[in-house]
Design a protein that fits this description.
The complex is a heterodimer. Helix content of chain A is 75%, strand content 0%. By secondary structure, chain A is an all-alpha fold. Classes of the chains: A mainly alpha, B mainly alpha. Chains A and B meet through helix 2, helix 5, helix 6, helix 7 and helix 12 of A and helix 2, helix 4, helix 5, helix 6 and helix 8 of B.
Chain lengths: 293, 312
């Protein structure tokens, strides 16, 4: 062994050491990743577990992780029915779907205009749109509330939906993506006599599926998670969305942890399922927005 | 092109084709621009107008008071406390989150790493989980008696941190949650950035005898600069606007921001001033203060971090 090691040129020894270094790096890295993944998932696993347990099990010291023998759907039935989450769930879904649809429509149309036409004011309008991306919602929420009040939209679905039907970020994202669509495809359709709405709807949109999927995800999650605006604009219980309903747990159902966890799980599970099904779009979309923004 | 440029812009003749295109463009742009104008541009001006008045929810005459709201805001100890908390939260959470997510992305970027997709999924699940749900779960995680955090710390002989009930630990507890939630998002963007670093550069450095650290510091890090700038700026902007966890995790008897205002952040301060205490004018002024803070910090960051790196 010693003899062969001596015979080897230094570069080879170096490469060998490097191999070992890489392996150690890999093992250490795996260890870190596993520890991190446990940290990531543990709270949510515990949430799901606690959502199935009666309160008496949840508040045991030391904490119980799993009690399969005591699991039941009782908490869900109570939260869904008596607490009223069925209605809140519907409100959340309805508002989120409407907002997503509206944002997709306004963003893809505006993106199409920027990506495909030359017109006076093109760059000026685009700069205005970009700069509105910098405006924090907190600045406009007070005037928006006053406007909604004047229009009698306070405490209605409209009040929740209208402020979110246009998204500067969405316009920007669709424009970026549409600029990447090969021009000859569009020109060919024009020469064939296709109308502009036809080109937009039947040629451009199908080519933009990845961007549409990503934007739909952002819009939906943004609405699903929105807490501040519904808190301001909604007060009657029939219109509560899930975040508002959950926040009321801090008042009405304080320390009813088993019910809180069932409520949190109701918010979590549908999104998780969609995420697991559409994972690629999610992550590509985020990478897309990150790299281009 | 040359003839177009020669004609003065105001007197340029539009061919029927060009005119048709422009009309279609405005038609497609119309809905978005209309709503953008009504829902963002006009409200900004309106917000400024409101901030100059003693405005409230109850209809009455709102006296014009000039910049008094702003002066008052800067003198109000509660505003200063909220500003301080917001900054502490940002300075505490963002660097830790960035460092951790970069380390994780570097580990994930290794060629031979097994289960890469599985790990990515695991780290991304907190990102898609709603803030309200997350806040409730972590309230329970931080519960001093039954919670898992203290149970975990007990393994190392550390006992009795009161977390959300303690003026010292409540804000760090919220930071921990936001780091936990944002890690996967930053990691995915870092990974995308790392994949843009040309492989040949590392190979060349390897042949020249550079070790992994040198290779990272002199190749990866400079080329990752645009990604780092992007994540820092978006993370700081997001942190300065923190709201949901700081409210849900600290609400006791309908009042958030406690204990003793140690977790009162700017957005809650604005919300509370405007919609709970009915001082819309004052709230609007506070919102502009937050906006100014975001703007200044973003510009400073851009100045500090912007540099061009081109190795091609």
């Amino acid at each position: 062994m010693a003899a062969t090691a001596m015979n080897q040129p230094p570069a080879v020894i170096y490469m060998k050491r490097r191999k070992w270094g890489e392996l150690i790096g890999l093992v250490l890295g795996l260890f870190v990743l596993i520890a991190g993944a446990i940290w990531m998932l543990l709270p949510l696993v515990w949430m799901l577990s606690a959502s199935l347990m009666p309160l008496s099990e949840v508040i045991k010291v030391p904490p119980i992780w799993f009690a399969p023998a005591k699991y039941s759907l009782g908490n869900y039935i109570e939260v869904w029915g008596r607490v009223g989450f069925a209605g809140f769930f519907f409100n959340s879904v309805f508002v989120a779907f409407t907002i997503t649809f509206a944002q997709l429509l306004t963003s893809s149309m505006a993106g199409f205009a920027f990506a495909r036409y030359q017109f006076p004011g093109r760059s000026a309008i685009f700069i205005v749109i970009l700069s509105t991306m910098m405006i924090p919602f907190q600045v406009i929420m007070i005037p928006l509330f006053i406007m909604m009040a004047r229009l009698h939209f306070v405490n209605t679905y409209w009040g929740m939906i209208i402020p979110a039907i246009v998204s500067p970020f969405g316009i920007f994202m669709m424009r970026q993506f549409m600029l990447g669509v090969p021009k000859p495809l569009i020109e060919a359709a024009r020469i064939d006599g296709a109308s502009e709405p036809y080109i937009f709807g039947k040629i451009m949109l199908p080519l933009c599926k990845p961007a549409i999927a990503a934007l739909a995800i952002f819009a939906f999650l943004g609405s699903w998670d929105n807490f501040l605006w519904p808190l301001i604009v909604i007060n009657s219980k029939q219109l509560w969305t899930l975040p508002i309903a959950m926040s009321r747990f801090t008042e009405q159902y304080i320390s009813q942890t088993h019910l809180q966890m069932a409520g949190a799980s109701i918010m979590f599970i549908p999104v998780l399922i969609v995420f697991l099904l559409m994972q690629r779009n999610f992550i590509e979309g985020i990478a897309l927005s990150g790299l281009k923004g | 092109m040359a003839t177009q440029a020669a004609v003065a812009p105001g007197r340029r003749r539009w061919s029927p084709q060009e005119r048709r295109e422009a009309l279609w463009a405005y038609a497609f742009l119309g809905p978005a621009f209309f709503f953008l104008f009504v829902l963002i541009l006009f409200p900004i001006l309106f917000a400024f107008w409101i901030s100059l008045h003693d405005w409230s929810l109850i209809p009455r005459d709102f006296p014009l008071i000039g910049l008094k709201n702003y002066v008052e805001a800067l003198k109000d100890p509660l505003t200063l406390k909220s500003l301080r908390n917001t900054l502490v939260y940002t300075v505490g959470a963002v660097p830790v989150s960035m460092t951790l997510s970069l380390i994780l992305a570097l580990i994930m970027n290794q060629d031979k790493l097994p289960f890469r997709t599985g790990f990515r999924t695991a780290y991304f699940i907190p990102v898609i989980t709603s803030w309200v749900a997350v806040s409730f779960v972590w309230v329970w995680m931080f519960e001093p008696r039954y919670g898992l955090v203290n149970a975990f710390l007990a393994l190392f002989g550390i006992t009795g941190i009161k977390w959300l009930a303690s003026p010292v630990w409540a804000l760090p507890a919220i930071m921990i949650v936001s780091i936990w939630k944002g890690l996967g998002y930053n990691m995915v963007i870092f990974l995308a950035g790392l994949q843009g670093v040309p492989r040949e550069l590392h190979e060349a450095a390897k042949i020249d005898g550079a070790n992994r650290w040198q290779s990272f510091w002199h190749i990866t890090f400079p080329l990752l600069n645009p990604t780092i700038v992007f994540i820092t700026i978006t993370a700081v902007i997001g942190s300065l606007q923190v709201f949901t966890p700081a409210v849900i995790m600290t609400t006791v008897q309908g009042e958030a921001g406690g204990p003793i205002n140690s977790t009162r952040v700017m957005v809650y301060h604005i919300y509370s001033t405007a919609f709970r205490y009915n001082q819309l004018g004052y709230g609007a002024a506070l919102a502009f203060l937050l906006f100014a803070l975001i703007l200044v910090i973003t510009l400073v960051q851009l100045r500090l971090t912007q540099r061009d790196v081109d190795y091609s």
